[in-house]
Specification:
Radius of gyration: 18 Å
Strand content: 5-15%
Distance between the termini: 24 Å
Shape: globular
Number of strands: 9
Mean pLDDT: 95
Bound molecules: flavin-adenine dinucleotide
Strand order of the largest sheet: 7-6-5-4-3-2-1-9-8
Oligomer: single chain
Length: about 290
């Protein structure tokens, strides 16, 4: 089923994200993680695309497994920054041959030292979206950044380019992780003002270790509120306590979003079914409201 249609349903939609293994060794483990996550009745499961495209086959295979074997809708991420247009076309055709109906179209981070754009490559996500549309009726999602994209100094420009991207045929947006919901509400206000009216899925990342937090800052430059930092300061050395606190913090964000009328939430559970289960266990009655 196309995600554009899933998002039209009246009910609350909770989706999860997994990432493919870098080597074949971890493959079975990830299939099992997906099996557990699928029991939580997600709206869909998204599968990331390794920077550089080296694991593109794994993304396609896992997305096909989720859809065809587990009976849950899947969303395959696709980046274009490190590939030629021809290579990207091959991946799109490959996804199509597996029956994948949903693609999250991304540019990808520019690898350090790589020429940008690569010869005969796409420069921005909107060009990839234009290409995907030539290959069939996919439901296309794209990324957005409540705190602004790290490369763009000016938030106004960032929203201008986001609008350009959406106008190329995007059905829904998923946000980068954020830890202060007010930033998200402010962002929603600004993009609606700019004429972007498609569904926006807030991306919630349960942070369960200090290493994970440092990596998040490195990747996205996101701001951590004082309340989060106190939690890390007090429980960061104790993995079990930090896991509980991180799940409670993410749950609190989700409840606040739902209480403020948000209907679709994407959780970056990153191959950890136990984290997904605990969060869902905390909101069983809430999501029925
Ligand atoms: P774009 O929309 O192309 O934007 C990139 C930058 O260019 C922005 O600063 C934008 O303002 C600017 N820009 C856009 N259009 C123009 C224009 N016409 N002229 C000038 N400037 C312009 N990375 C992965 O490698 N694999 C994944 O699976 C993955 N999944 C992600 C999922 C989500 C929900 C998010 C939020 C990010 C994900 N990323 C992933 C990271 C993403 O690839 C990076 O953030 C990347 O740097 C930007 O990708 P984009 O598609 O948003 O790019």
């Amino acid at each position: 089923m196309k995600i554009r249609n899933i998002l039209k349903r009246e009910n609350i939609n909770i989706s999860f994200e997994v990432f493919p293994p870098k080597t074949e060794v971890g493959y079975e483990k990830i299939l099992n993680a997906n099996k557990e996550i699928s029991k939580l009745n997600p709206a869909f499961i998204s599968v990331t695309y390794g920077a550089g495209g080296g694991t593109s086959k794994n993304t396609a295979n896992i997305a096909a497994y989720i859809k065809n074997e587990l009976g849950v809708e899947s969303l395959a991420h696709l980046t274009c920054v490190s590939s030629t247009k021809e290579e990207v076309r091959e991946v799109i055709q490959h996804l199509k041959s597996f029956g994948i109906e949903n693609i999250l179209a991304l540019r990808g981070d520019i690898p350090k030292g790589q020429a940008f754009p690569v010869a005969a490559g796409f420069r921005y996500a909107y060009e990839l979206i234009e290409e995907i549309k030539k290959h069939g009726d996919f439901s296309i999602g794209a990324a957005c950044y409540p705190e602004g994209h790290v490369e763009n100094k000016h938030k106004v420009d960032d929203i201008h380019y986001l609008k350009q991207k959406v106008d190329c045929g995007v059905d829904f947006l998923t946000t980068q992780m954020f830890f202060d919901n007010d930033i998200h509400y402010n962002f929603l206000y600004r993009i609606r003002e700019a004429g972007i009216t498609i569904p926006v899925l807030p991306g919630i990342m349960p942070i369960i270790s200090e290493i994970q937090m440092k990596r998040s800052i490195e990747l996205s430059g996101t701001v951590f509120p004082r309340r989060f930092l106190s939690m890390l300061d007090r429980f960061g050395d104790n993995p079990n306590a930090m896991m509980e606190a991180g799940i409670a913090y993410a749950t609190d964000q989700i409840i606040d979003l739902l209480a403020n009328g948000v209907k679709n939430i994407h959780i970056y559970t990153m191959n950890r079914p136990q984290v997904a289960e605990k969060i869902m266990g905390n909101i069983t009655e809430i999501i029925k409201c």
